[in-house]
Write a structure and sequence with these properties.
Elements lengths: L1 H18 L2 E8 L5 H4 L12 H17 L4 E7 H8 L6 H11 L3 E5 L2 H10 L6 E9 L1 E3 L2 E3 L13 E3 L11 E9 L8 H9 L5 E3 L2 E2 L7 E2 L4 E3 L1
């Protein structure tokens, strides 16, 4: 009986602690390829500059519909990629992104390097009180790497990436119980999802195969692909 009371008390304290957490919903947008290089490829990447912006915006709207208009939403965007892309004369891309964030009532944070992104995840909020309940990535990737600037500074390569072996930089304990984590990039379910779970203790849904951003506002799996943890 005494053991039962102690266990009940511990469960009650744990539940109360979990209930006291504030929840943050984070969406990450990597950058598009430069079309000046991609137009010669078959098929090219990123004919449209806003592949990773439109999809993120749609997801932000979905989160607000699910969690309410006052949900704490943070949108992290890789600024150097959009600054380089805007030099192709497509318009004031960074201004448009800022305006879209304001329209959706999302807090926009520009980042320039993987370390800045990881630092925000770890300490951008007091993580003892504000836990990450949702984290989604819209970007170029392969089975072992997020590439925030693929074919943007160097043709068909990346200088700004987060490799699966570097995921241990992300602190355990920053996520809310049953946090939802998903990569909408290509191939991350083939290897990176396993490393993510091992590093953070939280599962990450990733694609086995490619994802396609072209047909509509939300990316979809290419033929034969599937989602995996």
């Amino acid at each position: 009986m005494r053991r039962f009371l102690v266990l009940s008390l511990l469960l009650a304290v744990t539940a109360a602690a979990h209930a006291s957490y504030e929840k943050e919903y984070i969406v990450v947008s990597g950058g598009p390829s430069l079309y000046q290089w991609e137009k010669f490829k078959n098929p090219p990447h990123d004919r449209w500059w806003a592949n990773f912006i439109r999809s993120a915006g749609v997801r932000i709207q979905e989160i607000k519909a699910e969690r309410g208009p006052d949900a704490r939403i943070t949108w992290l965007v890789h600024r150097p990629s959009y600054e380089r892309r805007l030099r192709q004369g497509e318009g004031p891309l960074t201004t448009w992104i800022s305006n879209l964030a304001a329209k959706h009532n999302a807090r926009l944070i520009w980042f320039s390097s993987p370390d800045e992104l990881v630092n925000y995840l770890n300490a951008g909020q007091p993580r003892d009180r504000v836990k990450i309940a949702n984290l989604e990535f819209f970007l170029h990737s392969n089975k072992a790497c997020f590439m925030f600037d693929y074919s943007n500074e160097i043709d068909s390569a990346s200088k700004s990436w987060l490799h699966e072996t570097e995921l241990k930089k992300i602190r355990r304990g920053i996520f809310a119980p049953k946090a939802f984590v998903k990569s909408w990039g290509c191939h991350t379910g083939e290897s990176m999802s396993r490393y993510w779970k091992r590093a953070t203790g939280v599962p990450m849904i990733g694609a086995v195969g490619k994802t396609d951003y072209a047909p509509g506002p939300s990316p979809r799996l290419s033929s034969g692909g599937r989602w995996s943890r």
